[in-house]
Design a protein that fits this description.
Mean pLDDT: 95
Number of helices: 5
Order of helices and strands: EHEHEHEHH
Strand order of the largest sheet: 2-1-3-4
Helix content: 40-55%
Structural class: alpha/beta
Largest sheet: 4 strands, parallel
Radius of gyration: 16 Å
Oligomer: single chain
Length: 159
């Protein structure tokens, strides 16, 4: 029985990181974590592009454009939604998650969901802080693994 798994090394792969400008102190931490994870995986700076969008709601549309371009092995989407007193949080969180899933399914390009959905700002700060709990790094590692796995799938089985 043959078993395939993606790796945490992806030299030669190209990545797009789409970052929401809303809650910039949080998304800056997520972006720093994602960049660090890509560097640790031997991804060169020239193989990464960062695009900034107004908020989390805009992430799926830009991810779709990037995925359809054929220029990237994976797209990493970073944002932060903090629950408030209205239903706005639920509508945006649901739309973003479904939208990004649709982009991945329709394009066949891995799209990593690095959008925090927290109840408090303190929870968001904790998840964007440097270290092993950084969710931007976690999203980048998922993108690395999927890009690596897809390269294996494209190459086909080994004899």
């Amino acid at each position: 029985m043959e078993e395939w798994q993606g790796a945490q090394r992806a030299a030669g792969c190209r990545f797009a990181i789409v970052v929401s400008r809303f809650n910039p102190e949080i998304t800056a931490g997520l972006l720093a974590g994602a960049r660090e994870a890509l560097i640790e995986a031997d991804v060169q700076a020239e193989d990464v592009i960062v695009l900034r969008v107004p908020g989390a709601f805009e992430l799926p549309l830009v991810a779709q454009r990037l995925a359809e371009s054929g220029q990237f092995d994976a797209v990493i989407c970073l944002g932060c939604l903090i629950k408030g007193d209205t239903m706005h949080f639920e509508y945006i969180a649901d739309s973003v998650a479904h939208g990004l899933a649709q982009v991945a399914l329709q394009s066949g390009i891995p799209v990593a969901l690095g959008v925090l959905t927290t109840l408090t700002e303190a929870q968001a700060v904790e998840r964007a802080a440097p270290g092993p709990g950084n969710k931007g790094a976690e999203a980048a590692r998922a993108a690395l693994e999927m890009a690596s796995l897809f390269r294996q799938l494209d190459a086909g089985p080994t004899a």
